[in-house]
Amino acid sequence: MWRVLFYVTPTSLTVALVFFFLLSWVLAVAIKKRGASFSRSARAALALAAFSYVFLLSILPLGGEQPGSGRLIHWNPLHFIHDHNSEGAIEESFGQQLSDGNTVYYSPDELPAEERSEIQKMSPYDFFAHGNIESGVIVSNPEGDVVPQSQGQHILTEISEAIEVSSEPVQSQGMILEEKSLNFLLFVPLGVLAYFSFSSHAARMATGPAVSLSIEVVQWSVAWGRTADTADLLANSLGSFLGVAMGMLASALAVLTRRSEINGGRRAASAGHGAGRRPRGRHGS
Fold it and tell me: Where is the composition biased (Basic residues) (predicted)?
């Protein structure tokens, strides 16, 4: 599932947000036509989405986690900003996606079979590479067999730049911003559904944080080795707030559009009625 982060870019985020707003517009038009019956359908969809989020993001094990493997909590919701901007962090090993969609894990030294197996359980890679640019980089498959020279050279060409800077201080760790952006984006549709499910503004605003808090509590309780993170709670909540705002804006636009159509229809009817009337003639004596 972590590979999704490779596709979190400004372009993909923009496209997704535009899609969610169009979805809000469709829902706003539908609720104006169907009224209370549509609100009930929206609440059912919201309940299903909330259950799915809790199950997929906290209960369902991903990548070989084991029950009871740890209960960690990050209390500072802004800790990821410090992690992202911290200097002096050394990232000698890293994972990278290649242009053909395959992934490679690089480390300066050859990894023992046990460590390679543990990495595969958490995040499966298609290739492993070790060594350095000066003395040569060896590329092998997950079983430890060296790949053909032409294939290895192709992989080395793509990761050589990353290898050169892997032992230098870096400005970011992992894909923190991509992860938080995805957390933000996932809860936008939940906020949209919340807006059309409830008439109370407080209920609309509380839905996203409540679902996110449930996810973090379950993550901590089940202890799959994941971290209950207040930064995720913050990102999820902000995403749901944006979804509520989208629903509000779409509803306002739907009302204005409907009024414009009604007024246009009235003017057309009035004009037609006036044209159909015959002018009264004068009666001579």
Answer: 275-285
